[in-house]
Design goal:
The protein is α+β, with helices and mostly antiparallel strands. The chain is built from 32 helices and 29 strands. It folds into four domains: 150 residues, Distorted Sandwich (Calcium-transporting ATPase, cytoplasmic transduction domain A), CATH 2.70.150; 271 residues, Up-down Bundle (Calcium-transporting ATPase, transmembrane domain), CATH 1.20.1110.10; 158 residues, Rossmann fold; 200 residues, Calcium-transporting ATPase, cytoplasmic domain N (3-Layer(aba) Sandwich). Strands 12, 13, 14, 17, 18, 19, 20, 21, 22 and 23 form a ten-stranded mixed β-sheet that branches. Strands 10-29-28-27-11-24-26-25 form an eight-stranded mixed β-sheet, sandwiched between helices. α27 runs antiparallel to α28. The chain is elongated, with a radius of gyration of 35 Å. The N and C termini lie far apart (77 Å).
Length: 925
């Protein structure tokens, strides 16, 4: 066992040094704190300067693990030619060229190149959109720069940065610990050791000590399990211990959502059916005496037209664009599958503080044995007054007791108030910030108190004890423990009470009066913390909370308010209309939770509140029954959230669960959608989540559900459009061959229609504005795919109608021009097919609503896509080059009127069909 050599830190020594190079191997665990700081040229009280950090970032590069060699652009382009559809077309090009059909070969090759270019840019756009989202979801780090705490992206950390670490945070780089308070780190990800490692800034080790025993270092990728500390960064990116083993890790596979997997299966089924139909078309054509090459190219073109090869790219783009829209609504999606699941959410389990409320705590009231009263002032500004219930200012013994209580509030605290440009900003937890602000209102400045009585040890807050304790050394050398925590739990640890400067036994009567005051505050929706102290504690060695937090002297209660967010009440009403049940889960008191729930319209006056104690006593069977109706859980520990989630899921609910702490991670992972807090959440909670709220607001969850429903609707719309159009092309050729008509379309026409109608309109449907009443529907069953039986029937119906329109145009033109002039007849079918599909895209904007009710101009992207595609079709019909390449002939006069009327008919058919459908739905209701 290697024993550390403990020596004094030499942070203050003056020496000339050269900053360590990123590649220079240094045994940092063998150096004193001062030596490490000097070697990295950084002052512990200031950190790096902004300019210095920028210069080091340019020198060392971003703090990122090696991502492997990026695929060159030319390889990405070449990869497009590995697609089965492209290979089939290239084969057709080769066959045409071999048989001397150079025009056909050139046209097919040109269409292949156009398709490849479009596919490449679609994939690039999807990649860029997803990369942008990854950057948004990238972890942040807390550092000291220019003497001020700052939050920066982890990738911008450089050697020499001073990290500020606390429980629940990931360590973003390798670092030498400068200061530690009850500091322990979970290093299982790196060393395999499951027990948290106690860290000590003052330790120094021999050079050959094992990595897992270097208690003065922290490593990238590990997690702070308790306490707090600061550490100077010694290595970043590939220079970290994690970076050195990064090359042993396999490449990360691209995530594929259940929706994408189902659509892939649909594509494969369509491909098989299409090949069968193409085989029939080829065989029947040959039996009728059609040329083999023409029928081969027709079959190939039909296969290409029928298979929606662009579907995966369009799905990815729409998902990514939808996720970017969510960012505007304060939601970052970390996993694509969450976008699908949002539309199926039936229950949202939310924390109270900061999510349903504003998380802007202000101390409103106080209670002590010698007196009680109120506090004025708003926010974290240190301006306000303390008044007794009688209206007088505290004086004498009451003032002395108040000073003692507020001193505990200020010192047993990790929050800081920072004055900037005449305003006060909070750095730290809002509850602790409210305590520091209250002390400042009474003239107690935390920085001055810390200089007078510095903190020497601490037992950090945890969700089981619900207490925090700090040990301070006084001017005369004595030590005392200062404790704050939940009143009921802290009161059980007290033996005395402070009354007018005296310490008297804490009798049962005093206990009753304290608990009555606590309940009274809770009924008024106030959050209450108790303050206590214990003089003469032992500060040697790491503090044991169980020993430290006993025989305490009770000082008083401080009650804070955190008003409900004004927009949440409306969001709760929207949830109910949408068939989603909101549930509050809080560690606060039942009376407080009920008061907030009533203010928000979450519950009625006489609603039952289930407490954590009752949860523990419930069997799993009882809980499964109760969770279906309970709307508020109070005094709940984070581990109880997991039971609630599992019980809801066993009852068939799709659950979104919020969380911010380390202990919330299991529940976040178990929920269908884990929702982490972006402002107050820990790194561990964010890593376990599917989405992050950048404003910690319940309303943002509801907004995300709305966006998720809209995204799924849009995917369904463009899938509906693509398949109905592709079916119409297959049916047109298939029916004409079966009934003995000449082929209404030649191969290049089929390929051109597929090119101009599949891409842009489908993408434009993917950004269709959300329909009215999207949050008036019940949640979508999670098992329901994009294509159900009713949808497939409608796809076939619209496809058949477009087929009928194209064949009608072809037959009418045949009657007028005769079978000898197939160019005009085929042009009529070609134009009608292309324009019918473009007009049909308007039908696909909603399965129920009239396009005129939706607003013709609401989706300008779709109108632009139709205009561009129509222009390309006109080019093929009305230019000499288009006539020679696409075997078309200009049509005019009555022919043009007929084709125009038939092209518009799918829209008229859609309007009639939707009106009938709406009428049937109204009658059923």
């Amino acid at each position: 066992m290697n024993t550390p050599v403990r020596t004094k830190s030499h942070a203050g020594r003056s020496r000339t040094s050269i900053p360590v190079r990123a590649s220079e191997p240094v045994a940092w665990h063998t150096l004193h704190v001062g030596d490490s700081l000097a070697r990295l040229e950084v002052r512990p009280e200031k950190g790096l300067t902004g300019a210095g950090a920028k210069e080091r970032l340019e020198r060392y590069g971003p703090n990122e693990l090696p991502s492997g060699v990026e695929t060159p652009l030319w390889k990405k382009v070449l990869a497009q030619f590995r697609d089965v559809v492209v290979l089939v077309l290239l084969g057709a090009t080769a066959v045409s060229a071999a048989l001397g059909e150079w025009t056909d070969a050139a046209v097919i090759l040109a269409i292949v190149l156009l398709n490849t270019i479009l596919s490449f840019f679609q994939e690039r756009r999807a990649e860029r959109a997803l990369d942008a989202l990854k950057k948004l979801a990238a972890p942040m780090a807390h550092v000291l720069r220019d003497g001020r705490p700052e939050e920066i992206p982890s990738r911008e950390i450089v050697p020499g940065d001073l990290l500020l670490l606390e429980a629940g945070q990931f360590v973003p780089a390798d670092a030498r610990i400068v200061e530690s308070m009850n500091f322990a780190v979970e290093e299982a990800a790196l060393t395999g050791e499951s027990v948290p490692v106690e860290k000590d800034a003052g330790a120094v080790f021999e050079a050959d000590v094992a990595m897992g025993e270097r208690a003065n270092l922290v490593y990238s990728g590990t997690v702070v399990s308790r306490g707090r500390g600061s550490a100077v960064v010694t290595a970043t990116g590939g220079g970290t211990e994690l970076g050195r083993i990064a090359n042993l890790l396999g490449g990360v596979e691209k995530e594929e959502t259940p929706l994408q997997k189902r659509l892939d299966q649909v594509g494969k089924i369509l491909a098989v059916l299409t090949l069968v139909i193409c085989g029939i078309v080829f065989a029947v054509g040959r039996l009728r005496g059609e040329p083999a090459l023409e029928m081969f190219l027709t079959a190939v073109s039909l296969a290409v037209a029928a298979i929606p090869e662009g579907l995966p790219a369009v799905v990815t783009i729409v998902l990514a664009l939808g996720m970017q829209n969510m960012v505007k609504r304060h939601v970052i999606i970390r996993r694509l599958r969450a976008v699908e699941t949002l539309g199926s959410t039936t229950v949202i389990c939310s924390d109270k503080t900061g999510t349903l409320t504003q998380n802007a705590m202000v101390v409103r009231c106080f209670w002590m044995a010698s007196g009680a009263g109120g506090v004025t002032g708003e926010g974290y500004e240190p301006r306000g007054e303390f008044r007794l219930d009688s209206g007088e200012a505290p004086s004498g013994e009451v003032r002395g007791d108040l000073l003692a209580m507020l001193r505990i509030a200020a010192l047993c605290n990790d929050a800081r108030l920072i004055s900037e440009e005449g305003r006060t900003r909070l750095s730290g937890d809002p509850t602790e910030g409210a305590l520091v602000a209250a002390a400042a209102k009474f003239g107690l400045e935390r920085a001055a108190l810390e200089r007078e009585t510095p903190r020497v040890q601490e037992a950090a807050f945890d969700s089981v004890r619900k207490r925090m304790s700090t040990i301070h050394r006084g001017p005369a050398g004595g030590t005392e423990a200062l404790v704050k925590g939940a009143p009921d739990l802290l009161l059980a640890r007290c033996a005395k009470i402070r009354i007018g400067g005296r310490e008297e036994p804490l009798t049962d009567e005093w206990r009753r009066r304290i608990l009555d005051a606590n309940r009274e505050f809770a009924r008024d929706a106030l959050r209450v913390l108790a303050m206590a102290y214990r003089p003469g504690v032992d500060a040697a060695g790491p503090p044991d909370a169980e020993t430290l937090e006993r025989d305490l002297v009770f000082a008083g209660l401080l009650a804070m308010s955190d008003p409900p967010r004004p927009e949440v009440a409306d969001s709760i009403r929207i949830c109910r209309r949408a068939g989603i049940r909101p549930v509050m889960i809080t560690g606060d008191y039942a009376d407080t939770a009920l008061a907030v729930g009533r203010d928000l319209g979450l519950v009625e006056e006489d609603t039952e509140v289930v407490t954590g104690r009752e949860l523990v006593a419930m069997s799993d069977e009882t809980l499964r029954e109760r969770v279906q109706s309970v709307a508020i859980y109070a005094r709940v520990a984070p581990e109880d959230k997991l039971r609630i989630v599992e019980a809801l899921q066993e009852g068939g609910q799709i659950v979104a669960m919020t969380g911010d702490g380390v202990n919330d991670a299991p529940a976040l992972k178990r929920a269908a959608i884990g929702v982490a807090m972006g402002r107050s959440g820990t790194d561990v909670a964010r890593e376990a989540s599917d989405m992050i709220l950048t404003d910690d607001n319940f309303s943002s969850i509801v907004a995300a559900v709305e966006e998720g429903r809209g995204i799924f609707d849009n995917i369904r719309k463009f899938v509906f459009y693509l398949l109905s159009c592709n079916i119409s092309e297959v049916l047109t050729l298939f029916v004409s061959i079966l009934v003995g008509l000449p082929r209404p379309l030649v191969p290049v026409q089929i390929l051109w229609i597929n090119l101009v109608t599949d891409g842009a309109p489908a993408l434009a449907l993917g950004v269709e504005p959300k329909e009215r009443g999207i949050m008036h529907r019940p949640p979508r069953p999670p098992s329901e795919g994009v294509l159900n039986r009713a949808t497939l029937a409608e796809i076939a119906l619209y496809g058949a109608f477009i087929t009928a329109a194209a064949l009608a145009a072809f037959i009418i033109a045949l009657r007028i021009y005769g079978s000898e002039d197939l160019a005009h007849a085929r042009t009529a079918a070609f134009g009608t097919m292309a324009f019918s599909q473009l007009v049909h895209s308007l039908n696909c904007r909603s399965p129920r609503e009239s396009v005129f009710r939706l607003g013709v101009l609401k989706n300008l992207y779709l109108l632009a896509a139709i205009a561009v595609s129509a222009g390309m079709t006109f080019f093929a019909i009305y230019t000499p080059f288009g006539n020679s390449v696409f075997q078309t002939a200009p049509i005019a006069g009555a022919d043009l009127v007929v084709c125009g009327a038939l092209s518009i008919s799918p829209l008229l058919f859609g309007e009639i069909y939707k009106a009938i459908r709406r009428g049937m739905e109204r009658r059923r209701r």
